[in-house]
Amino acid sequence: MNFDGQQLKTTATRISVLYGALVLIVATFGIRAFYVQVIRYDYYHQRALSDQLKQASIPAQRGTIEAYDGNNIVPIVLNQKLYTIYADPTLIKNASQVAQALADILGGSKASYQTKLTAPNTRYVVLARKVAADTKSMLLAKQYPGVGGVEQDYRTYPQGALASQLLGFVDNSGQGEYGIEQALNPELAGTPGELKAITDINGVPLTASGNNVDTQPKAGANVVLSIDVGIQKQVEQILASDYKKTHSQGLSAVVMDPNTGQVKAMANYPSYNPADYQDVSNPALFENAAVDNAIEPGSIMKTLTTSAALDTGAITPGESFYDPAHWMVDKFNITDIEQDGGAREQNIQSILALSLNTGAVWELMQMSQPGATQSSQINQKGISTWHDYMTNHFRLGQETGIEQGYESTGYVPSADMNNPAVSLNYANTAFGQGVQVTATQMAAALSSIINGGTYYQPTLVSETIDPNTGKATVNQPKILDKNVVSPKTGQELIPLMQGVVQQYLHEGFSFMNFPSDYLVGGKTGTAQVVQSGGGYSAAVYNGTYLGFVGGDKPQYVICIFNIKPHLPSYEYAGSYGGQPVFAHIAHMLINDSSVTPKS
Amino acid sequence: MAGGLAGAGRIGYGEPAVRARKHRPDYVLLVLILLLLTIGVVVVYAIGPALSLANNVSADFFSGRQLIDVGLSLVAFGITSRISINDWRQWYKPLLVVAALATLAALIMPANPNYPAHRWIRLGSFSFQSVELLKFAGLVWLAGFLSDRLKSGLITDTRSTLKPLVIAMAIIGVVIAGVQSDFGSTVVMMAMMAAMAFIAGMPFKRLVMVGGILLIGGILLISAVPYRRERLMTFLHPTADCQSSGYQACQALISVGSGGAIGLGLGRSVQAYGYLPEAANDSIFAIYAEKFGFIGVAILLALFLALFTRLKRIALHAPDNFSRLFVVGVLAWLSVQSVINIGAMLGLLPLKGITLPLISYGGTSVVFVMVALGIVFQISHYTSYVNETDGRRGGYENRANWRRNQRRSRDAKPGSRA
């Protein structure tokens, strides 16, 4: 009994000891829970939120881009909802099985999917882009943890590659790149909505969570372009064809309404298809050369030089002068390229018709000092006046403000008389060398002269439409200057430019034959090209043309830049590289009744 | 009968000369069990939608199966609570054989790719975790073995008592920890066996010795397998690498902590939505803590402590050694498993991959826990409360029984046979 009692006591004691230890442990747990849940609550609450609370922006529907085709508005750029399929490799359980399903449903190789699904150190890999909704649903129905789809708007182009360089494209992040898409990105993109939600581990918001903040997205505005689809299409065809005929390295055309500044067509060749922008290897193809390629324009500048000289009263349209066929300016000999009739009496018409560089320099001399007969008479007054006309009247050397992603300012040399050879530089600018301009700048400048002196900001937008109300806001012509030149100067320049067309017809350029009830004028330009290492190349020229076509008054201003055309006679790039393109476009406009003939 | 007078009411050794009369069982124990089961079912039901998303099943899949399992376990409880305790003593051999066969079957069955360890026997949608049966069979065997040794006075004998015990532990260590990589269950079984041996009166020194050997073996086992080493490192620095090895530990602690004082509410757990792995099984305590906060945790800890206290009380007053050792084994099983599970969720112990008894989703665990508790419930019919060695406690129990006796005359009356 004694032994039993001893054992009994031991047992009771031992049970109590173990039980006591257990009570202590449970109490420790209680204290620990109090520490974690009450004292350290804020810390763990934040830790939880940093995982659980996800902020996402709900993309806004991007505005469409449309344009007039005659009187109908036709779509140029539309949206299509497609899906980007992504995966979080840390959540993928059976990569081989998931990869097989991806290959079966999306196409592509199982191996490449498996590589993506097992990518280390990342929680986001893109498996496929531009996946259609039903394909996406088929895949997500399999409910593989870690595989998801995000809706994304993609641009589609019902007109194909039409106007691609002025449109630009939208990249995978929804950002407009180049062209209208970039310039009007804020308007087109709209305002994304905001979603702040407690989500599950895949980022799907939990309905049970009361912490969701939700702002609805605001769709972007629809933009109606000023371009005329019919004209644009034909201009693009003409460029493609003349690009080959002239063995050009780049051909640009701007067709502008001189009475509003609206661009009716703007194209370059070569170009690209915006639907396949990812496949473009040469990014220069994205650039809208008509707006962002500034070159020395050559003799088309003489239309502006003459206008400035007429407007200041330094010359009159009927005036004649003795042309020595060369001028020495700052020890450099200035001669003519296109026409060389030798030293003789010339007049204002022949400065343009025969494209006399010496004539353009003579105009600068007259702006310096009325009646000047020596090139040494070029002075500060003439240089300042011509600089003022180029920069302040014709707005060269600055962006026009047209709705494009990238625009070149061009270059106008300084009029500072302390600069060495400023007289030579300015003598050169008088016939379009040593100054850089874009086709759009030249079209806008000529427009402002022949419309009677109003500089309209060049624009590609005709109206914007609110996608919710359908209300259209017309893009009123924006007048930047009402006194570029006097209306009289404009009226004087028009026949002078008509005379150029007549001269070429007279010389046998039969394509310059236009019906008599149309008003057609122009000016060729053969621009020397600076070669690498300095100086001008003797073998390569750019061909340019600046002209207009209309009836009672000019209705379209057309500017052509033909970069380094490969022609039998290089030095006639303007006549043979620029002029035919202008002619083709002018004939096209007349033939398809876009031009109202003389009443 | 004079011997019976001494033996019947006492904590006796050897078979009692006279069994205590059957009296009302411990209904408090039953109420506590039902409360804990209910909490488990409610929590699993509440996170059903979250689990359904992660596992590609319907929202009531998990709670449906949990209800079936709990129903099964209640039936098992009902059956075992009616089987005489003496019958179990006879069944330890077939039980051990079945448990060994089940373990063998689990080892040769093809494993689920998501859970590569060979721990389950799978037949269609039915799956059975063999170690749970082994725990129970081992418990029955050891209670019988130790009570026999006590009866023959050989409890302190190294050769006949300690040696088989160490061999049994070694087998478990090799098969469960070594082959099945189930370190958590190994710890639970070792603790259960050690507690029973300790209570049976095995000399303390020898237990310390065996414990030391086990500790060395355990360290060897941990350092032998890379993922266990990793878990140990994770345990020492639980938040050092929340992205990979420490992910579950970090997310568990975040779940517990973000519950705050009063919790997010029953249906508002976020962590169950894929953030916290094994939300319905091993990690259910953290989800519970997130839902019900510190108040809920305090209540749950109190419920578990109450259950343990109840088991301790039944053990202290068990009618015979077999019963007492059995109850002590159940107490060790449930308490060690709970402590390991909750400790891991609170960031105090390394993750072991074992369930929280009575709460976690997982059929095998709850069924065998309820089988064992059914037997304890049966034992609670025969507890005897006599003022013997401990006057203070006995006096209290006497008063309690006195009150009961006023109502229920068929209840055992302390010393009534005198």
Which CATH C-level class of the domain at 56-220 in chain A is it?
A: Alpha Beta
Oligomer: heterodimer
* Low-confidence spans of chain B: 1-18, 387-418
Backbone CA Rg of chain A: 36 Å
Kindly state the percentage of residues in helix of chain A: 25-40%
Please provide a written account of the structure.
The complex is a heterodimer of chains A (599) and B (418). Chain A has 599 residues and is an alpha+beta fold. Chain A has a domain at 56-220: Penicillin-binding protein 2a (Domain 2) (Alpha-Beta Complex). Helix content of chain A is 36%, strand content 24%. Chain A has 18 helices and 23 strands. In chain A, helix 11 packs across helix 14 (380-393), helix 11 (302-312) packs across helix 17 and helix 13 (357-368) crosses helix 15 (422-430). Chain B has one domain (36-382). Chain B has 16 helices and 2 strands. Chain B has a two-stranded antiparallel ribbon with strand order 1-2. At the A-B interface, helix 1 and helix 2 of A face helix 3, helix 9, helix 12, helix 13 and helix 14 of B.
List keywords for this structure.
heterodimer, A: 599 residues, alpha+beta, Penicillin-binding protein 2a (Domain 2), seven-stranded mixed sheet, five-stranded antiparallel sheet, 23 strands, 24% strand, B: 418 residues, mainly alpha, two-stranded antiparallel sheet, 16 helices, disordered N terminus
Blueprint of the fold:
The complex is a heterodimer of chains A (599) and B (418).
Chain A: H1 2-39, H2 41-52, E1 53-58, E2 65-69, E3 72-87, H3 95-106, H4 110-117, E4 125-131, H5 133-140, E5 147-156, H6 164-167, E6 169-170, E7 176-177, H7 179-183, H8 185-189, E8 193-198, E9 213-215, E10 222-228, H9 229-245, E11 250-256, E12 263-269, H10 289-292, H11 302-312, E13 320-323, E14 327-329, E15 332-334, E16 344-347, H12 348-353, H13 357-368, H14 380-393, H15 422-430, H16 439-450, E17 455-456, E18 461-465, E19 472-474, E20 479-481, H17 487-506, E21 519-530, E22 536-550, E23 554-563, H18 573-591
Parallel strand pairs in A: 2-10
Antiparallel strand pairs in A: 1-8, 2-3, 3-4, 3-5, 6-7, 8-9, 10-18, 11-12, 11-23, 13-16, 14-15, 17-20, 18-19, 21-22, 22-23
Helix pairs in contact in A: 3-4, 9-18, 11-13, 11-14, 11-17, 13-14, 13-15
Chain B: H1 2-9, H2 27-46, H3 48-55, H4 61-80, H5 85-90, H6 92-108, E1 120-123, E2 126-129, H7 130-151, H8 158-179, H9 183-200, H10 204-224, H11 226-236, H12 247-258, H13 284-316, H14 321-345, H15 363-379, H16 391-407
Antiparallel strand pairs in B: 1-2
